[in-house]
Design a protein that fits this description.
With 143 residues, this protein is an alpha+beta fold. It has four helices and six strands. Strands 1-6-5-4-2-3 form a six-stranded mixed sheet. 34% of the residues are buried.
Length: 143
């Protein structure tokens, strides 16, 4: 199991709701190739929750991850600030976001708190800045 973060028991009711929403949307995943269902729930600073699931494609490079689905939905609904994201998987163990998702999330929420959970219920907490240290971001384009 490749996880970075802290196994924690200090999750609160708001975290439970975020994980619950990620589990619910995971059921909608389209993953005929990997057979791994992933759900994500993103909490905006205003309290709204945006969800997404993975959508695979026969042209593997065109696959869309749950995390990116959730953030694109949030942006399209006008949310631009985020506090936390829960990511759940159908595998027994938790999975961290891929590199592409880390980069997209960094664009909007470099300090994002991330909760990952496997189907066995084990949860880990980490922060995006720990998963993508010294990231390239919007400020790097300033001249």
């Amino acid at each position: 199991m490749a996880t970075t973060g802290t196994k924690s028991s200090r999750f609160d009711a708001a975290d439970d709701e975020l994980v619950k929403r990620a589990v619910e949307v995971r059921a909608h995943a389209y993953s005929p190739y990997s057979k791994i269902l992933v759900g994500a729930a993103l909490r905006a600073a205003d309290g709204r929750i945006f969800t997404g699931c993975n959508v695979e494609n026969a042209s593997f490079g065109m696959t869309w991850c749950a995390e990116r689905t959730a953030i694109v939905k949030a942006v399209s609904e006008g949310a631009r600030e985020y506090t936390a994201m829960a990511i759940t998987t159908s595998l027994p163990h938790a999975l961290m976001p891929c590199g592409a998702c880390r980069q997209v999330l960094f664009e909007f929420a470099p300090n994002l708190r991330i909760i990952v959970a496997g189907a066995d219920g084990t949860r880990y907490e980490t922060f995006l800045e720990d998963l993508l240290p010294e990231a390239f971001g919007p400020s790097d384009l300033s001249q």
